[in-house]
């Protein structure tokens, strides 16, 4: 069973239906027009490409502190990387993008994971990814500002 801050728990089959890792983590109740990343429109492959393109050197997970051990493992983490590629129409910034969170893993007597919960603010991640200039409108804005290109974009 997997659970993400404030969301209902989901099992592995439901996680697969949502499109796997990125899509299940990025579930949101925001209106569709406000979503910088819309997991409802993404596939496993498109989400993977979006994030690996934005973070070509990777998006590391760093365990900062472990608060308790088995059978209930609780730890604080930092997920981070440098945005060196575009993300959903936003230019790369080269800046550090990071988010912090708490994870809780419950394991059974065989150390098999029974339940997982993550608590984090997805907005930290998306805010960093959407900081760059809007690539979709920048061409038009540049063309209209240039006397030689005016009326071409």
From TrEMBL:
What InterPro entries does this protein map onto?
NTF2-like_dom_sf, Pathogen-related_defense
Return the protein name: Putative pathogenesis-related family protein
Q: Which SUPFAM superfamilies did the record assign?
A: NTF2-like
- Natural source organism: Rhizophora mucronata
Residues annotated as transmembrane: none
Q: Which domain of life is it from?
A: Eukaryota
């Amino acid at each position: 069973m997997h659970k993400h801050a404030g969301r209902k728990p989901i099992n592995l089959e439901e996680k697969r239906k949502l499109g796997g890792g990125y899509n299940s983590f990025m579930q949101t109740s925001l209106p569709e027009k406000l979503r910088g990343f819309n997991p409802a429109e993404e596939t496993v492959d498109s989400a993977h490409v979006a994030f690996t393109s934005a973070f070509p050197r990777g998006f590391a997970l760093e365990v900062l502190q472990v608060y308790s051990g088995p059978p209930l493992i609780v730890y604080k983490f930092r997920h981070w990387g440098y945005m060196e590629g575009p993300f959903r129409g936003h230019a790369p910034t080269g800046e550090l993008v990071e988010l912090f969170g708490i994870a809780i893993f419950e394991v059974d007597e065989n150390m098999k994971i029974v339940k997982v919960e993550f608590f984090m603010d997805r907005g930290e991640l998306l805010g960093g990814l959407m900081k760059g200039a809007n690539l979709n409108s920048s061409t038009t804005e540049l063309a209209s500002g240039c006397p030689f290109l005016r009326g071409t974009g």
